[in-house]
Write a structure and sequence with these properties.
Layout: E1 33-38, H1 57-66, H2 79-86, E2 90-95, E3 100-104, E4 117-122, E5 128-130, H3 146-150, H4 154-159, E6 168-173, H5 186-190, E7 194-199, H6 213-222, E8 224-225, E9 229-230, E10 237-242, H7 253-267, E11 271-274, E12 276-278, H8 299-309, E13 313-317, E14 339-344, E15 368-371, E16 375-378, E17 384-387, H9 390-407, H10 413-422, H11 441-446, E18 460-463, E19 470-475, E20 483-488, E21 493-498, E22 505-509, E23 516-523, E24 528-535
Parallel strand pairs: 6-10, 6-11, 7-10, 11-13, 13-14, 14-15
Antiparallel strand pairs: 1-3, 1-4, 2-3, 5-12, 8-9, 16-17, 18-19, 19-22, 20-21, 20-23, 23-24
Helix pairs in contact: 6-9, 7-8
Amino acid sequence: MKKRNAVFFYLMILSVSALTILPIKNLVAQNNLYWVYLEEKATDLTTWENPFDYFSPRGVLRKAQQQVLFDKHDLPIRQEILREIETLARVKMQSKWLNAVLVETEHPDLLEHLDFVDRIEARIPMRKSFASLADDDANFQYGSARLQTEQVFGDLLHARGMTGSNVLIAVFDGGFHNTPNLSVFDDLFNEGRLKGTYSFVLQDSNVFTRGSHGTHVLSVMAAKTRGIFVGTAPDADYWLFMTEDQLVEVNAEEHNWLAAAEVSDSLGVDIINSSLGYTTFDPGQNDYTPADLDGQTGIVTQAALFAARKGMLVVNSAGNAGASNWRKIVKPADADSIIAVGAVDIQGNRANFSSEGPTIDGRIKPDVMARGAGTYYIATNGLPATGNGTSLSSPIIAGLAACLRQAYPHHSTENLRQTIIRSAHLYFNPDTLMGFGIPNFDVAFNNVFSVDEFASKQQISVYPNPAENQIQVSWSVDFEPLGMRVFSASGRLVRELTIRNQQTSKELDISDLSSGTYILHIYGKSKAISSIIIKQ
């Protein structure tokens, strides 16, 4: 095997407001941590003029493809607020989605008197829950991965040329030990498809020296050595985030998950694979109960919901508690807009450890099933191995969801999610053990809804598109825009127009622009939205 020097990638900072990560420090065994929730963020006439102030070019493009609204949840917390909080408490992290700051203090009452504070809640520390991975003849193309890929008809999706190309997957896990030195990942590194890494545990880019769980999970999607092992998304792009510490029982993992999801949104991630779950607290503290599986309770479930609403498809392990006293799914698998994946064996029978539903409010969970018993992956020695757990069934689905996204880049995430679910073999007769069953990605490919009934109400209409000279842009009456801007795909401003009060359409001249893809951005005081323009 070729020995490669370890390659480390540093999290790029687009601007102070966009991707700044506040380090999460020394959260082991701390009970004096509080979430400080803030009053609603203020906006002005210039807040939404330039989406590239808050997002990478890819992030803007992903939102424009789906016409996902830019709103207050995309705005960072103001630095002057953070500075004032820091005079009274130690700031551990911030969340723009929650509009909250996690602080360490013995006197939370001092913060209650600040004008911008809405409420203060004690942090509920969580303990991580990994799927167990027990190490236990090659096909020409897939090698050891053949049967688990064919079980969900992923091979037929690949045969159509859909292998995840130009789709960005973020993997949240506990470390990716030895990944740079494994030949099955040579293409991932050599082709520049590993876009970056960041450890929220170590607060640096080093994710390759601790923990093998992420290596195993990544291999199910990204490994690519024909005849040995080919994963479900062998040509996708990847970001690797270390959100879990496997060496100690720290309590910060769900906050790391939230931070990683916010960064993923700014980076333009399409798919999140999270082979993680949360159920109980550390000894001596309050536990979650099955009654909390309502799709709303808990930081990590709220983070998953936000991620879905921002246009990312979240694929999460359902959990391995089916044979334990807990039995139920884990968080954030209870969220209603994600795909929670249970485990079956190669015959399609449910694995006895696979967590079951429903949620407390009666929703079907898990959503779908894939092979999680006797699943093949690549071990840190570079050889195929087998293991059990929904940690391994989740990346089977996440990888093939990326292939489906490649085929339908402009469809809403909810359209693709529902299409995957509707392709499953128990869709018309779901239950609490298997959910909607085992999906058929060939059926899904042929049944993506041409009229996207799940898309957000379209705020912008562009016609004709593609176009050579003039296009007509119209918007809904309640949008109340202030201005219109056109950006190149890299974020360069190429056109700017003012919109009059009560105006609901405007003609745009693009005759002098070079052929290519542009971002049309319409902004108001409280929100903004983008769409794609194709200049012929």
